Automatic annotation (TrEMBL):
Keywords: Glycoprotein, Hydrolase, Signal
GO MF annotation: an example: alpha-L-arabinofuranosidase activity
Name of the molecule in the record: non-reducing end alpha-L-arabinofuranosidase
Superkingdom in the source lineage: Bacteria
Amino acid sequence: MKIKHWLGAVLLCIATIAYPQHTFTVKANKPIADIAPTMWGIFFEDINLGADGGIYAELVKNRSFEFNNPLMGWSIKMSDKTDPQVAGMNPPVLVVNRKEHTANPRYIHVTVDNAVKGDFLLSNEGFRGMGIKKDIRYDFSVMYHQATAGVKLHIALSDSAGKELGSTTITPAETGIGWHKATAAFTANATVMRGRMNIWFEGNGAIDLDMVSLFPSDTWKGRPGGMRADMVQKLADLKPGFIRFPGGCIVEGYDLEHRYQWKKTVGPIEERQLIINRWNTEFAHRPAPDYFQTFGLGFFEYFQLAEDIGAAPLPIINCGMACQFNSKEVVPMDDLQPYIQDALDLIEFANGDVASTWGKVRAAMGHPAPFNLTMMGIGNENWGPQYLERLKAFTKAIKEKYPAIKLINSSGFAPDGALFNYLDIELRNMQADFIDEHYYRSPEWFYANVKRYDTFPRNNTKIFAGEYASHVDGTKGDQKNCWLSAISEAAFMTGLERNAAVVNMASYAPLFAHVDGWQWTPDLIWVNNLESYGTPDYYVQQMYTLNKGNKVVPVTLNNEVVAGQDSLYATAAIDTVKREVIIKVVNASAKPQENTIILEGAGKTAAQATVISMQSNDLLAVNSFTSPTNISPKTSVMNVKGKKISVKAAPYSFTIFRIGMQ
């Protein structure tokens, strides 16, 4: 009896728990701002093996022998017959440097002496191995030169144990002056995460080789020499309003010699000049001595990618300043004109007529139609008077020739402090089109700054939240993207949307990270050699991009914006095309909350509403390759009666309600 009485008391206590109750008022017929089509976008940078070894599907590392160590990524295996230390002959491989070919000076000279398969092997390890997929065709190509024919190449893929996964042969036939291209294809018979490519030499003679390449055939849109389809699909699934490229800090470079120069990234692949990636040695805790930029993913491909996924292109160019954290190098103002001309020429490359100098280059690459460039960034995280001096020169030249182009201006590397305040004042005095703000901060900062833009001026100068991420334990920790980081970003983004009159663009950063090659964490999308998955933060971004609406309307709690009261955050928008009101609610507390939504001015509502929600009681929960959608949106339907809607916000949840209206 005592147990019964005790249990009854507990059940009565549970039944009478009073969850917090709130009433949100949504004024659906009182739009306060337009939401720009570019509101939610993506930021791409070649960090964490994002391009080479990532979205750019080339499998051969150091294909043109231009790394600081010309044979990095390659290994040589010789029998006693071909080993110069045993046979007393010349080395079978020499690296030759043709100084007159500045973009791609090196190639290898291979000598074989009556070799059979098994005597002499060149093997490439790929980028942390080569991801090989069963039943997929692989396309091999190589540039070669030979005085006389006599060498045959056996190309094969193998697993880590040496088992062959597919092979083909090439017998180069062209001789004499000049370089030629040989191609072959074969199909893999197994799937492995870390394969290799082997080239066995047979015959008698000598041959020069360059641009040794291997691509899977299942690239995005099946383009030869293209991008990894699964990674591009992750971007397309976000339906971003824009894509910012080619990055942040790599635009500046460690020094100006290694800055990003877009003109060296277009035209024939073999004529694009490789440089060291500035993330090669940036982080002592994650060294990447084999990290270079081949520019197989160059500015043409970036523009094409933007077009493919329906995003506005946003290129960032160097402003005559290297990274101010590294070399602090600047080009003198008297020598700035070539940098400015690069910006003007880039606009012509993107938009110019096919008869123009750079429009002709674009057309020759297969895209005679313009890319419809409307905006451009001048510098990345630059600051101080030296930046403003150079920015003004760029702005004057670009606006005189292309007045419709909107320019994105840097506010430095932090969202506050003396450097930020100085630039914010000066850029507003210049009537800047956009001020680019970056913030990598703790979840607490994101919660505390939901009202950041409530008091910003409502004028022609707009905000671009160009790089942001909630860091649970910094960039060097093992804690990647978890539900705590994602839900704090979801709360912060309610403030961005509510202030769409001020904020016209926003993008999370960084975008991609290779599980075996990252330098910086957290990141939005994680990949290995075969697969990719979106983090909880990715799905928060997707919930915003797919449920954007085009007009902000007020949503209030006790006549105030919903920005932290009882750990609740909310924003509302109207989709005038679908005639829906879209309400986003974040409950950042550990308790469920009963909420009532009152729709004012909505007309007659639909009988049912769509509910999209993410939730986890574990704030440190993550997604993974084995559980890629552990934290991801769930969609359901809710009955609606009238304009007073009762909803429950689960603990630690982000929920979107789409309600049809007349």
